[in-house]
Amino acid sequence: MIKLNRRGALALMGGTAASTLATPALAMNKKIKVGALRFTSHSGNFVAYERGYFADAGLDVEFEFFQAAQPMAVAIASGDIDYAVTAISGGLISLADKGAIKVIGGALKEEEGIDGQSYLISDASYQAGTKTLKDLDGKKYAVTQAGSSFHYMGAKMAAAEGISLSFTPLQKVGAIIGAMKSGQVDGWSIVPHIAKPLAAAGAWHVVGKVSDYIPDYQVTTVFTSADNAANERGMTESFLNGFSRGVDDYAAAMIDGTADQDVMVDLIHKYVYTDRPREKAAPSIINGTMRLAQNAALNIGSVQDQLSWFQSEGLVDADITLDTLVDSSYVETTGA
C-alpha cells in the first residue's frame, strides 16, 4: 500500500428511514478527521455530528473544512483526514490507481422529481441569441479543471445534443460565476442553490436539467484511504453508520416533509452560509437541497459510466478497473 504525503498526492492529482448498514464494530471513541465543504450537500456529516450519531458509533469527529474537492482527495491520500465526500474526477481516479484512496459509498445524486443541477447560459450569450443548449455549439463552456465533474456533465450533454463545446478551465467556482456574469463564457452547470437565485437576478438563464442528460447520476461519493478501507473496517463501518443516520434526518426534514425543516435549517446554518444572518441564509440552504443516498447506497452503474468517460477522453489510464476505484463491500450497490 502506497503512503503519500501532501506533495506526492498533489503530484498524482496533477498527473492525470433507519440505516440498514451492517451493525459496526464500535470504534470506542476513536478520533477521526472528516473533510467537508460548507455546502448543504455535506449535511449528512453535520447532522450526524450535531445529533451525536458519530458519538453513538464510537467516533470522536473533528471537521476539517476545504474550499474545493481536489484538496480533500489529496488530504485523504496523505492521511491528513480520514473520510470525505466529493465528486468523481480524473484526479480522484488517478489517486485510486496509485493505491491511495477508495470510494466506499454514495452521497449526492440526481433523482427525478427533486431539484438538481442545472445547465445555464450566460445572460450576454442569451441576449445574443444563444437560447438553447444546442445553440452552445462551438461556444465556451466553463469547467474548474479538465477532468472535473463539470467537464463530465458538459460532455455528456454535448454528446446528446450533437454539439461541440470549447471547455474553458477557470479553476474555482467563484471565478466561473464572475465569468458567467460578465459574459466571458457562455455555458455552465451547477447545483440549485447557486443556479436558482442568480437566474432570478438575471445573471444567467436555466435552460436544462442535468438529470435529463445523466439519469440517476451519482454526483458525489463517500471515500477514504485505501488503508482505512482495507484495514480499519470497524472504524469505517462506524463512520458510514453515523453518516447514514444523519442523511436520514436530513431527508426527513428537507425532502420528505416528515420532520421540522426550520430546525434542520438552523442546524445546517451552523456550517453553511455562516457569514449571513439566518433569514438570508435559509433560502440558499433550502435551494441547495438534493437527494443524499439512503444508507450511502452507491450507484455503481453511474460510477462505471463516469470512469469509462474519463478513460475515453484519455484523462486516466485505460486499464483502470472499477474495483481499483471502488470497495463495494461496505454498502448496497445499484445500477450494475
What does this structure look like?
It comes from Actibacterium mucosum KCTC 23349. One of its GO terms (biological process) is alkanesulfonate transmembrane transport. Its main location: periplasm. This is ABC transporter substrate-binding protein. The protein is α/β, with parallel strands linked by helices and 336 residues long. The protein folds into two domains: 6-111 and 217-334, D-Maltodextrin-Binding Protein, domain 2, CATH 3.40.190.10; 118-213, 3-Layer(aba) Sandwich (D-Maltodextrin-Binding Protein, domain 2), CATH 3.40.190. Helices cover 43% and strands 18% of the residues. It has helices at residues 6-14, 43-50, 53-56, 69-78, 90-97, 123-127, 149-161, 173-182, 192-200, 210-213, 226-231, 233-254, 261-269, 278-287, 300-312, 322-325, and strands spanning 30-36, 59-65, 83-87, 101-106, 108-109, 118-122, 140-143, 166-169, 187-190, 204-209, 220-225, 291-292, 298-299, 333-334. The radius of gyration is 19 Å and the shape is globular. Residues 10-20 have low confidence and may be disordered.
